[in-house]
Model the fold of this input.
Amino acid sequence: MSGKRASLDLRNYSLVTAAYWTDTLADGASRILVLFFFYQLGYTPFELATVFAFYEVFGIITNLVGGWIAARFGLRTTLFSGLMVQIVALGLLGLAPEAWLVVPYVMAAQALSGIAKDLTKMSSKSAVKLVVPKDQEGALYKWVAILTGSKNALKGIGFFLGGVLLTLVGFQTAMICLMAMVGIALVSVVLLMQGDLGRPDAEAKFKHMFSNERAVNMLAAARIFLFASRDVWFVVGLPVFLRTVLGWSFWEVGGFLAIWVIGYGIVQALAPRFVKRRAESGGSEPDGRTATWLAFLLAAFPAGIAISLSADFDETLTIVIGLFAFGIVFAMNSAVHSYLILAYAHGDKVTMNVGFYYMANAGGRLVGTILSGALYQWQGLTSCLWASVAFVLAAGLISLLLPRHPTTARKSLSASPA
Done:
């Protein structure tokens, strides 16, 4: 019976992952479509940032509430809801009269897209715990790394797809194409998924979403600053810099961002091969020390790019080399974080722990997105890069407080009161 259950969990997890990949592709494409569409209309960098503000704000709310919903009603509920909301979000942009496509309307549509993305992401990330046997930390780390890396690779493909669709068919037709793609994914999982994905807990309380565990809280805090360090220059500042200062076309900007995110995803998927924990026990899984030294190493790259740009080094070469170096280290750091939250999470509270953690993730993206537009408009890309340095250093300092051994932290979690 247990073998049948494991086979069913694996089948359902495969369906969840395929749906998540589809949603990720559509989400990446729609983001770049919205960015370039409003850039063509003459919006300032700060105005472009505000278009995505609700996307991140509602991502915070979704991860908070969604973790509780998943714990209480199961991951099927959050998965199906996420896909349906994404269809609505894309439809609002693809089917609306063109006169409606103003900032408040698009902000509302992006808010729904942020809700959809985080519901499906939480479903997929939490489902990993169902198919990996307990106490197999190495296997868990590899599965998480592969899932996270593949997601980001597909997001990069989505950036490129968005640029291509905008050029070939225009903004609204592109949104309709993406809506149809997500619709196919929803119908497929509804028809093919069997049984429950995880066991719903009718007694799960919303107050349990706020973790009282030091390891989870410290990791969430480090995650806020880590993702703020990326988005403070990547979301608005970098694309606008490439287009206006370096004179790249939309195809070139979209293609470059796509290549970067795909490469970033590949590094995340391969992270277990590169990141090893040198422990007395001979284990190879990362711990709090791994997250710490990766964060401090990461700070060197935005600082180096900022110094090089100020010294009038070749701007194109500096950006290309610096961004790819930053991406490699950032990807490894992010993969370690994604492993640690599942390693720290108690089995009965995994969806709530993951929801709390990704709420922090969305909070970091929100801060980074708003500052990306504001700082770029104020002092250009260099100011965004120095803000990135400050955020990464903060993530490193907080990571010093993470447990040295994930298994120890998990035992502490399981012993704590509900």
